[in-house]
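Reply to dn_fold:

You asked what the input looked like. This is it:
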Amino acid sequence: MDSNSPATLLVVDDNPTNLAVVCAHLTKCGYRMLTAENAKSALRRLERIQPDLMLLDVMMPDMDGFQLAAQIREREDYHGQPMIFMTALDDMESKLKGFAAGGVDYITKPIQHEELLVRIKTHLEVHQLRQELSLENQRKDELIQELEAYDMTVAHDLKNPIGGIASAAETFDLMDDLTDTEAREIVEMIKLGANQCQHIINGLLSFARLRKGHATLQVVDMEKLARQSIDALKTMIQEVNASITIEGALPLAYGYAPWLTEVWANLISNAIKYGGCPPKIVITGSIMGQKVCYKVCDNGTGLPADQDSMFKPFARNASAYIEGTGLGLSIVERILRRLDGAIIAENNPEGGANLTFYLPSANHAQ
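and this is what came back:
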């Protein structure tokens, strides 16, 4: 339920008069109303829309309110929305049966409208708080898992380059008769280890900045950002003789340029690393309704079988697109999610991999 929009209520009652009176009063109070005159009709309604709260009459033909509640609870799309029973039955056994069926409250007829409003408001607020608490707990669990993986990453990934630096320094210290060639080799080992450490640390810092960062959204020239990223990777491109082609014009998007620069840099550098020999990368863009779509296609060996794991922080896989801390694509996925976008990874039937990402179009800013 969106706190800024009125709640949607489903009222199920086989008495048309009761249904009309309750709905008329609740509509005046600002609620959006759905109605059903029997349990089967209610279940059909639930196939099309999920209300925020349900008011169920107990005494109905074919299927009573308790049986209806039990069926609703078994549905995959039921997420704990409160169900309140309405009935003339006020004996303890009926009330206990109602709570056992999943009801959160029990209102006896004739219904007092003021009481009904208070109970509806209370249960909507409780349900909203439970949803927020569940989401917060989920975020905390994810954070705990990421912090545990972070510790393992720092310990594992920094161990090898730091060990290499220490070994090279020890060799340099122990050997008094180093030739110029040997000295240069040791210096290169130290530089390589230091660069590896820097790469790992930069990835971890980017991940941390994204978690805390705030963005001011605006129209972004995506072709300009893509070409800037290509220019920044010029040395890498020349080393492997990679070719990068932007086919057609890339449409404008609505987002945050500093973050999207990181998206392009990660996707293009991955395509270079895991492309063919030499790598050939093709970038395209198109407009799809209210979204814009961009593709980065390479000519490499393709993606791992478990493609979903590619976007998890600190993921590791023996196949392509997972290297070092495994943060690159995780950062890309988080950036796009923060910008109301998404990314899909898939293998090209003709060979290579396609990474396709979506963003709101420039029209979103209007």
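The chain has three domains: 8-134, 158-212, 218-365.
Hope that clears it up.
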